[in-house]
Amino acid sequence: MSQAPSYAQMNRGQPSASKKVLVIDDNPTIVELVKYAICFQGNYEVFAAYDGEEGLRRFYQERPDCVIIDVKMPRMDGYQLVRCLRGDVTSAHVPLIILSAMIREEDQIQGYLSGVDEYLTKPFKPPALRAALERVMQITVEQRYQRMRELAARYGA
To answer: Which domains can be identified in the chain, with CATH numbers?
Structure first.
């Protein structure tokens, strides 16, 4: 049985060599730090939004290859945003990373149950963010759904 392609594999051969990343955080300083950390790698085009609702609009405008999301934001929190994106067939396959100051295990479990691929905490180290970005770009849709089923079974969600 062949394995489903990862999001990165599905997008190979696109006219643009760079991948689009949308950063959604209400703190402009964090947005700039994330942009710097990602652009340092050189093959990403980074867009920003400063609250959950704006992030959702920007997602559908830009169609990014990955989204990095804060949890505590005005107008729509990160967990709600992740559920919106995972609940839409046109965005369910896109890799999602939460980057949050919420460090409790319960917060991280909630993030994973919402559908996020990685949960990183602030303050973050740029190499860790870049590594997470590379990892999530390699996750296949099949792997993502399998992990979601395992989490739901484990936590009764």
So the answer is: 17-155 (3.40.50.2300)
